[in-house]
Design goal:
5 strands; mainly alpha; single chain; about 60% helix; 2 domains; Arc Repressor Mutant, subunit A; about 240 residues; about 5% strand; two-stranded antiparallel sheet
C-alpha cells in the first residue's frame, strides 16, 4: 500500500470514530481527506494535521456532496493538474461549504473552490468572496445573477464602465416575480455586501455651478458594482 494511502486510512479511521453526527464511514472520511490534500497540495501528514481538529465539526454528507460538485466542475473543464490553494482561503471554504444546507448556495462554494484550484482561471480571487457567500440568501443570489444576465443580453454594455448601467426596481421585481418587501430586503443586503449600489443619475443639459445635478435613486434604480461583477465571475 502507498504510504500516503495508508496514512489517509489511519486518519480516516480515527476521524470517523470521533465524529458525532450520525454514522460515518471510513470511505467517506478518506474521500474528504484526499480532496483536502489535493486542494492544499501538501503531504497527507501535514494536511491531516491542518484539518484534523475541524473534521468532526463538518456535516459529512454535505461535505461529500461539495467534493463531488467541485470535482465535476474541474472534470467538465478537463482540468487534470490543479494548483495549490492557500490554507487561509481553502479552509474557510471547506468548512462553510460543509455546513451549507441549500444546494444552490453550496454551488457557489463549489465554483469558488474550483476556480481557486483551476490554473487556467485568471481572475483575481478575494477573501471577501467568502464573507459575501456567507451573507447571501438564495433570493439574493438569484437577484444578482438575473441582474448580470440582463446586462449580458445588452450588447451596448461596456463592462469597464459597469456603473453606467442600471435596472429599476420594477424591472427586477418582474424578472423575479417577488414582492416589494422581499425585493427591498435583498437589495439592501446586496448593497451591504457591495455587490450592487444605488444608481446615481446625472441630468442632461442642465448645469449648476458648472456641474450637472445628480439624483440618488436608492433601491428604486440600482447598478452592478465592479466587485459584484468579479464575485459573479468567481462564484457563479
Amino acid at each position: 500500500m502507498d504510504p500516503n494511502d495508508k496514512k489517509i486510512e489511519e486518519v480516516a479511521k480515527a476521524a470517523a470514530a470521533l465524529a458525532k453526527f450520525g454514522t460515518k464511514t471510513v470511505q467517506t472520511t478518506e474521500k474528504i481527506l484526499k480532496f483536502s490534500a489535493k486542494v492544499l497540495k501538501q503531504p497527507i501528514d501535514d494536511t491531516s494535521g491542518i484539518i484534523g481538529d475541524r473534521l468532526r465539526l463538518f456535516r459529512w454528507e454535505r461535505q461529500v456532496s461539495y467534493v463531488d460538485k467541485v470535482n465535476k466542475i474541474l472534470d467538465d473543464r478537463n482540468v487534470n493538474s490543479t494548483r495549490p490553494v492557500a490554507p487561509k482561503f481553502a479552509l474557510p471554504i471547506l468548512e462553510n461549504a460543509s455546513l451549507e444546507e441549500n444546494d444552490d448556495l453550496q454551488t457557489l462554494w463549489a465554483n469558488l473552490m474550483a476556480n481557486a484550484m483551476d490554473p487556467n482561471f485568471s481572475d483575481g480571487l478575494r477573501i471577501a468572496y467568502i464573507e459575501i457567500i456567507k451573507n447571501l440568501t438564495t433570493l439574493d443570489a438569484k437577484l444578482l445573477k438575473i441582474f448580470y444576465d440582463s446586462l449580458l443580453e445588452d450588447s451596448r454594455v461596456n463592462w469597464d464602465k459597469i456603473l453606467d448601467y442600471s435596472l429599476t426596481k420594477e424591472q427586477l421585481m418582474s424578472k423575479l416575480d417577488i414582492t416589494a418587501a422581499n425585493y427591498e430586503l435583498s437589495i439592501f443586503n446586496l448593497f451591504r455586501n457591495q455587490c450592487l449600489a444605488p444608481a446615481v443619475i446625472t441630468s442632461q443639459g442642465i448645469s449648476l455651478g458648472g456641474h450637472a445635478p445628480t439624483s440618488y435613486k436608492g433601491s428604486k434604480q440600482v447598478t452592478l458594482t465592479p466587485l459584484g461583477v468579479s464575485f459573479i465571475n468567481s462564484c457563479m
